[in-house]
Amino acid sequence: MSHTPHELAEEFPEHVALMHHMRSTDGHFHRLANAYHEVNRTIHRAETDVEPMDDMHVAELRKQRMRLKDEIYTMLVRHEPAPAPVTEG
Question: Which InterPro entries does the UniProt entry name for this protein (predicted)?
């Protein structure tokens, strides 16, 4: 089995538990994560010549993956708990 780069768990290792939670509780996040996974797999198949495609199509897929990743990251940081305030004592 070959290594597939750019999996969400590798991209955001500090958010793995939150991603798991959000996939099961947030339908929009679930759809985004699935779309990211599909585009990522398609890019990987093209890059490894399993399913070759022209460079322009691969470039468009990479842009799509980047947009999905940005939206996923935005959702993740919005759901992060706020840091505890520092108290002087």
Answer: DUF465, DUF465_sf
Domain boundaries along the sequence of the chain = 27-79
- Average pLDDT across each block of 10 residues of the chain; the chain has 89 residues. List them in order: 74 95 96 98 93 95 97 92 65
Task: Tell me whether residue 68 is exposed, middle or buried, using C-beta atoms within 10 angstroms of its C-beta: 0 to 12, 13 to 18, 19 or more.
Answer: buried
End-to-end CA distance of the chain: 55
3-state DSSP call for residue 70? helix
Answer whether 69's CB lies under 8 Å from 43's CB.
Answer: no
